[in-house]
Amino acid sequence: MSDDTEGGPYFFLSYAHTPKHDPNDPYDPDQWVEKLFNDLCEHVMGMSGLGHGAKPGFMDRELHSGSHWPTRLAESIATCRVFVPLYSRRYFDSDQCGKEWTAFSQRILHHRARGWGNTEMIVPAIWVPVPTESLPEAAQDIHFSLPGIGPQYVEHGFYGIMKLRQFRKAYETAVYNLARRIVEVGHAGNLPSVDPADYKSLESAFGPHDPRRPNGHRLKVTVVAPDIDTLPNGRDPYHYGHSAHEWNPYRPALNRPLADHTADLVRNLGFRPEIGSLDDHYDHVLSEGPPTSAGLLLLDAWATTSGHFSEPLRRLDQSGKPWISVMVPWNREDSQTAEAEPRLRGCLEAALPHKLTEGHPTQRSPIDGIPTFEQFCKAVPEMARSAMNQYLRNAPAHPPKGHASIERPRLQGPLSGGNETEAPP
Prior knowledge:
Blueprint: E1 11-14, H1 31-48, E2 57-58, H2 69-79, E3 82-87, H3 89-93, H4 95-113, E4 125-126, H5 151-163, H6 168-188, E5 218-224, H7 258-267, E6 272-277, H8 282-286, E7 294-299, H9 307-319, E8 324-327, H10 335-339, H11 341-351, H12 373-394
Parallel strand pairs: 1-2, 1-3, 3-4, 5-6, 5-7, 7-8
């Protein structure tokens, strides 16, 4: 990517708007964010070598009244080089900020799925310090410390060092080093532009806010597929590896194991994924006890032709478990699967007659399969949410310790027998 191509901004500043404490007060609480943005743009323009007319940055305050802001935001996220989230507690509570993070993360996953490297194009900045243990799952592995940025910035964030005059030099140092990091990442990376995301269909990367679960709910990704040593007779090993984990039905559109890509997708929804084979997740899939987590079961249709898998799948089908969503990738480019379609559909129906017709509309016909990698990526969030909702409905409750019950107050006094005095009229 050259310095002036694509027409998008060099960086996208993602931040949570601060509401006014008094609607009638003319003071703008976000003016300090705008100052930070302008200072970053000045440094990025000077260090990056951007040409005349190029846009160093984007923030939504530049939108004029009447602009269709979702479209402008989506276009900027789809074409920018670097995503700069401005960390604060309000940021991670914001559904809009979570959607912006999801939209950019989808670009990274799209890039990684095609084997173009592990691109790191997210450069966080601290507006107000947030404890590391309070970060959502999507942000847990993103490094937000910068060399040479200064201890005052780490302790107070940009808000603190901008508001206090004594930290003026600390602010100048911090904003310069942040801009330098943005330019370093922008030049090192090569993240292709994509079509703008449909914001209405996006899920927040931070999940529903729950202060008791800062890292989200656990979600098990179970792979039911043979390895190259246990393939059905005549099955081409092209889509398989040395373990179930390595199964990749969408190769060459996807250049990594499907389970790894699925884990990244659900992590961007705020869940904590755990990948395993049917043997690894035996208790989760087949035990008769209460659910311990939601799950996605990635099923290779060819696995249902083997007794090793078909019998456990029948047991899963008989046990119900609506908190486990079944997904059947059915690559229409796989000619061998297309030729064996009648047989495979028959084996699927025999193994999972109930699972194939339960639950959410997307789940009603997994036997029809998911024919393309793009459709699979769109289906995962809906299937994961459906499984999690079912888990929350069916998981055992754990009320706090204390009295077994609290007697409901009555205006007329207790109803139990004994020497009761009549309530006054």
